[in-house]
Amino acid sequence: MQRSPVVRARGITKSFGDVVALDGVDLDVASGQVHGLVGPNGAGKTTLLGLLLGLAVADSGSLEILGTPVGRTLAVPDGVAGFVDGPGLYPSLTARQNLSALASLRGDTPAAESAPESAPDSSAVDSALEQVGLTDVADDRIRGFSLGMRQRLGLAAALLTTPRLLVLDEPANGLDPAGKRHVHRVITELAANGTAVVLSSHRMDDLAALCSEVTVLATGRVVFSGPLSKLAAESGELDYRLVTSDPAAAHRVAEGAPGLSVMPGRGGPDADVLVVRGPVPALDELVVRLVRGGVAIRELAPVVTPLEAAFLALTGAGDVSGRNDEGDT
């Protein structure tokens, strides 16, 4: 079944003085899809997210959101929500008061005629807080909130609008494992109900867990856009950690395996860890040879995940065989 398009961008350009932030960017996002946006620092991700939220306008190209052409004004159709560079919040107010204030600014009022005309819909506020797991701290002032709690409150603010397009900038930033699982579950459920989600992240594990498609930007240009599985397939040769019951025997077998290279000194401080480089079929053959030789395999895992390796190769951000220092994108 073909999903209806929520975002359709063609040839989008955006410059700030002499700096070209976006250079002929195309983007397609369908309803019910979680679409990842990744790239190194300065790639143009924040600028593109800002265009989707109506915080900036393109210099040229065409952009349609929810079937409506977006012109040269700071406006997007109803049904778009999210945040860039973290949510804007009032630190002196509680979580509940923040959401109530936002609802009042948008003119959201309860249906009951007996309610004060200016009062926001408290049930919608309570529901949003519950969705992101902040009910227990709803009446705490957010000046004491952690980064992860602020991120979740920003997501709650976006949920107040029942968005058809949700735009999120590093939604898992600062979250502990439990909080990240909670946010992942909210995003997954939104997509299952037809909401299109565009999110930026520098964490490949978040992309793998959430996204069906991804767009990779480098210096303002799209270097890849498509299914996540296709991106992973473009990782090529990887380094793999190999831990066995007999390191010396494993080293001899690996040296004789076709298509593999044994990497000197890549095992770290543990001399029993062997690091080999090669494509997946060569690793399969190595496993067969080790088992035939009576060598038990205790660990075989990529030093860098296939998704991260593909990202580094496409953007020229570093050696695809080893781990780069992780940083914001």
From TrEMBL:
Coiled coil: none annotated. Transmembrane segments: none annotated. It holds the Pfam family ABC_tran. Residues 105-126 are annotated as: Disordered. Residues 7-244 form the ABC transporter domain. Keywords: ATP-binding, Nucleotide-binding, Transport. Belongs to the ABC transporter superfamily. This is ABC transporter ATP-binding protein. It comes from Nonomuraea terrae.
